[in-house]
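User: I'm curious whether this sequence folds into something compact or stays loose and floppy. Could you predict its structure so I can see for myself?
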Amino acid sequence: MQAIHHPLLSPAPGTQRELVSLHYGQPGGPKAYIQASLHGDELPGMLVAHHLRLQLDALEAAGQVTGEIVLVPVANPIGLSQFLLHAHLGRFEFMSGENFNRHYPDQIDAVAAAVGPQLGADAAANVALLRRALKAAVLAAPADTELQSLRRTLMSLSCDADIVLDLHCDAQAVMHLYAETPCWPDCEPLARFLGARLTLLAQDSGDNPFDEASSQVWWKWNQHFAGRFPIPQACLSATVELRGAADVTHELAAADAKNIIDFLRWRGLIAGDKPALPAAKGDARPLAGSMPIKAPVAGVLTFLKEVGADVKAGEVLAHVIDPITAQVTELKSPVDGLLFARDFLRFANAGMRVAKVAGREALRTGKLLGA
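Assistant: Here's the prediction. I'll summarize afterward.
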């Protein structure tokens, strides 16, 4: 294993953060990129990365890493260090207010213009050409702030990968994934290996999160060239939501790491017998069918349903109780679906999103991700 230290742009004299990437195997073959805790206060992925490192160390020592695997155990040193009054706040950068998992730069048109005359009838050659040009464009992009330098560094490590896994978590949730619709054929085995109850699919959900910035280049290049050249969906990129924020145990993390290793072995990046494809524990549904449950009033929040429950439209999921008037407001599911995530806070402000139910029909439009 080779550890590489990537200095970020210094935000002030005497201050310097860095990103550390761990590299297994050798470049030139299939590549997987895995990063943990892009939202710095979402820690299950960091523990999974620890267990992945232990397993990859042993596999490399045994000569079984046949592809290239890049692991970033701390994808966001900025957010990891952000505390206010003892509260860890790693989702938004304090300086800009921007979500660390949004606004990744788009090099699609620039790369298409640069390499278009060189594309041909060989799909593999086209993929290699586009990857080289994309990496060069990412590295050449300006970065005027520490946050921009973090985004550029992460994209430079991942933009030429066949598989990109971005390890996150929700507040309280079942294991679930986010991916772009063109990735679903390759993502479906990943969902099986991870035992995901749900995969939420969209094509360009808005604001360019990391996983979509990694995968959308391929279908957008295919659209740009209008099928004149064979350009496959050469990157499976997925956001892996490792249950809830408090699900940080060795038992869960070791099992999740093993499941990721099994998937990488199934994809041919690790030597050994190809594992059998597990039975599916969930299904894919449109991200536009994921319905937020909002509290119309403020009060004490208590849930009547656990995450993982199948619910019906009109079924009461939670109560919001005004402790002064004793008024009880019922929060009902707007659709039949899976209650896959809920907040861990138990006081709701008026308008607060407190839970999410995944239905089977696309009902929402516009930007589909929350803040």
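Summary: Residues 44-61 form the longest helix (18 residues). The radius of gyration is 21 Å.
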